[in-house]
């Protein structure tokens, strides 16, 4: 089984990778960029862990960040291991929401819990897991605490793919997703909800992929139609990527508020 490790930069990915995999490691480069590709074997000797570059969002700002979207579009994988920094849950969950749009099985490794705790932040992993519809396993990647349990979970049987349509993106965007479904019927293996949202956010790799199936005009018309509908419905002139980001933020705020308690005087805001 191929399991991809994905998360924001500096969340403990490398530490977790080293804890979960044995010494066997294949090192090469991702195609077209100088970012090294690491694939390690889990200690069960069967399943592989693929280390992806750290990103805040799938929509890439650089070619290096494009590695992640290209991976989703071109490489086979069975599960995603999403590592989160518990002390920056709100920011980290933006990427998670995009993984859940994809609909693949996801397991969350909740790291940096010691940092969160020192800031007086207590996270209820059960509540977080319930709201998202995927397993959440607490780990301390630096010391290896919780890593065996996480390995068992991620290499084990079926896991959750997240609550369907966890984020409601508004009438115009949701209609655009349905429209893309009509246009693509039977012509792609990829989840159309994810393709649509990445397209509306301006992900050039997804756009190029769609241009291999649809005409440029169809794509332009769809994006334009959704922008116009969205502006009409909301009376706002926000660009689609901003609307999508705002919808995710609203959903994330609710989830984080429900799963978090603050203690002590050191109430540093949770970002
Ligand atoms: P990456 O950038 O996502 O690959 O993250 P790294 O594994 O390189 O970790 C970034 C920094 O966070 C390093 O200094 C790690 O030692 C540290 N780190 C990793 N896991 C933990 C943890 O659970 N708690 C704390 N306090 N630090 C951690
Ligand atoms: K780092
Ligand atoms: Mg790293």
Automatic annotation (TrEMBL):
Q: Which UniProt keywords apply?
A: Cell membrane, GTP-binding, Ion transport, Iron, Iron transport, Membrane, Nucleotide-binding, Transmembrane, Transmembrane helix, Transport
What this chain does, per the entry, is described as:
Probable transporter of a GTP-driven Fe(2+) uptake system.
Q: Where is the FeoB-type G domain?
A: 1-160
Q: What is this protein called?
A: Ferrous iron transport protein B
Record lineage: Bacteria, Bacillati, Bacillota, Bacilli, Bacillales
Stretches assigned to coiled coil: none
Protein family: Belongs to the TRAFAC class TrmE-Era-EngA-EngB-Septin-like GTPase superfamily. FeoB GTPase (TC 9.A.8) family.
Instruction: Give its localization.
Output: Cell membrane
